[in-house]
Amino acid sequence: MLPPALPDACVERPGLVAVLDAAVRRRVTLLLAGPGWGKSTSLALWARSNPVAWLTVDEDHSDLGRFASDLLLALQPFLDLPEAVREDLPVLELARDAAAFVDVLAFALRGQAVLVLDDVHHLPEQSAAARLVERLCSRAPGGLRIVLTARREPALRLDRLRGRGHVSDLDAGPLRMDPATVAAFLSSALGAPAGGVAEPVHRCTDGWPAAVRLTADALRGTPPHSWPQALAAGPGPRLMLRYVREEVLAGESADALELMAGLARQPGVTGPEVGGPGAAEPEELPRAADDLVRRGLVAEAPGGATRVVEPIRRCLAVGTTGAAARTTAGRAGPDLAFHTLGGFRVVRDGRAVPTTEWKSAKARHLLKLLLARRGRPASREQLMDFLWPDEAPERLGNRLSVVLSAARAALLGDRRSGADGPLVADRDVILLDLRRIDVDVERFLEQAAEALDADRRGGDALALLSSAHRLYRGAFLADDLYAEWAEPLREEAHSEFLCVLHALVRQAERSGDTTLAIRFALRLLEHDAYDEQAHIGLIGLLTRAGRHGEARRRYGTYTAQMRAIGVTPSYAAGGGAPAMRRSAGPG
After folding, report:
1. Cα dist from 78 to 74, 102, 129, 147, whole Å
2. Calpha distance 500→494 (Å, rounded)
3. Does position 334 have pLDDT exceeding 70, yes or no?
4. Are 240 and 223 in contact (CB under 8 A)?
5. Same domain, yes or no, for 113 and 252?
């Protein structure tokens, strides 16, 4: 497998390439940085002059068989393993014996190679796949160097290798863009000299590559003479704030968020700096802060004090995370999140509301119906008919009030006194105020629409689409799968999810990551087994990847599925595995 394609606006970074050259002299390199720091892009830039095998790790690679198969496929150009031998190899059984698996690689490896395992933080702790990576790192053949990238410290035991001097540890520091690099990137991305705004863009992004790119996107279409005013107009581009909230802050622990919030609001500070009297010194910071510095979320200010990087500070300042994002006029209640995709649960102040606090099953049903109405009010008569369909409405007024009170009690907990909750009621109607809560299906639909719009414009939307994809954890209110009142929102969310998967296939294929495109195509067919375009596209991807046996099997599955619903397959292979020319996805 090949490294991902470089983005259109990409600048040479000889200093960074030199750092990577030096690091890869050791057996293992761990590149640790948060989202958007350009780990993959930097390595793809470096890989232009180095022999690289590339595997992008995701959640599916917790399955040992899939991980081992993809690992062999990535290394295929550097292994003396004929296709017939590779297809007959008992990969899963071999991978279960990590030492034997590594011995096969050592025997088959020809020449020098660098194996990049991108995003290894997706491997679960103590998983068999993680143990296989550990064995590969500790017993790698002499001609193989291994580069690991991760958003956070991976679940890999590398301390013994570190003690022996076999590990190069890199953090976000070398990835940070300096003002000259920012100027070169902006000029390339905007098609006009941008040296005049490079310094303010560097200040408002802290050289964070994703933030620089999103700032360039915000400036695109604005006349160059208006760039300074556009930069000074507000707290930052909407997409940047969304990216920080969804890709960065959403994945952080409560301790890390509290630490960043504290650094961002430290009193007596001008701008983003948190230095000066009372600032936290590096030796006083807990281990969590050291980790944030390594990953590029917190930086050292002049004098050795620490500060939150500017895009995160701006995001925190406008209240786009946690309870601050949902504060409305009136008295604040608890931070409430409704999980509706794949099941139903309510999280209050970071903890699921326990079963013992739901005094009435009807209270849960009431909330589900209001969630399905997406903030639209429901009349009391509608709700009584929903909760007690076979009883006379004139006898149900008090019972509905009791259910409403039970729902409020479960949502507000011990903050009932003096708190305005999201349940709003008057004499006639009841509604759930979505401005005061976080609802995963609403967040998914909003982010999916934004990501698909970016895909339609022809840009690099892979990160936005991947973020939307991760939000979809199953059907809306899967516990009420046959409830007609939930069907419209369930169908809308599922349809949007399929569109996201189609777009991910296209984006992954466009970036040159065929394995990732195959993975998304397989997931698409898991959710819609009768999508003919997805079947045809998957067969084509497998064929182009040289996986002819899998392509042949998938062709059989495709024809069987089409005939099962009475459809004549539009593609007919004239014997053998089909040699496809079409890519996955619609359009």
Report:
1. 9, 14, 21, 16
2. 10
3. no
4. no
5. no
pLDDT tens, position by position, 213-261: 888 887 877 788 888 877 765 545 566 777 888 788 877 877 788 788 8
Give the CATH number, domain containing residue 157.
3.40.50.300
Please answer whether residues 30 and 59 qualify as being in contact, where contact means their C-beta atoms are separated by less than 8 angstroms. Answer: no
**Mean pLDDT, residues 464-479:** 90
Mind listing the pLDDT tens digit for each residue in 359-373?
889 999 999 999 999
Please tell me the distance from the alpha carbon of residue 365 to that of residue 161, in angstroms, as a whole number: 55
DSSP letter, residue 476: B
Q: Is the residue at 7 inside a domain? A: no
The SS3 of residue 490 is helix
Q: Tell me: do 315 and 343 sit in the same domain.
A: no
Domains contained in the chain, number: 5
SS3 label, residue 379: strand
- For residues 31 and 166, membership in a common domain is answered with yes
Q: How far is CA 303 from CA 264, 311, 354, in A?
A: 17, 21, 47
Let me know: does 394 contact 411? Beta carbons within 8 Å.
Answer: no
Pair (111, 98) in one structural domain: yes
Domain of residue 210, residue span: 179-233
Closest CA to 296 of 306, 285, 281, 304: 306
User: What value does the mean pLDDT take over residues 298-315?
Assistant: 79
**Alpha carbon distance 497, 540 (integer Å):** 22
DSSP code per residue over 397-434: HHHHHHHHHHHHHHHHGGG-TT---SEEE-SSEEEE-G
The residues with which 117 forms a beta bridge, in sequence order, are 55, 148
212 lies in a domain?
yes
Residue 5 included in any domain: no
**Residue 3 falls within a domain, yes or no?**
no
Cα distance between residue 477 and residue 472, in whole Å? 12
Cβ neighbors of 221 (< 8 A, separation 6 or more) are none
Answer yes or no: are the C-beta atoms of 203 and 232 closer than 8 Å.
no
* Residue in this structure with the two tokens 């970071």, named with its chain if needed: 350
Distance CA 113, CA 340 (A): 46
- 313 and 424 together in one domain: no
In a shared domain, residues 55 and 148: yes
Tell whether 27 and 91 lie within a shared domain.
yes
If you ran DSSP here, which 8-state letter would residue 126 be given? T
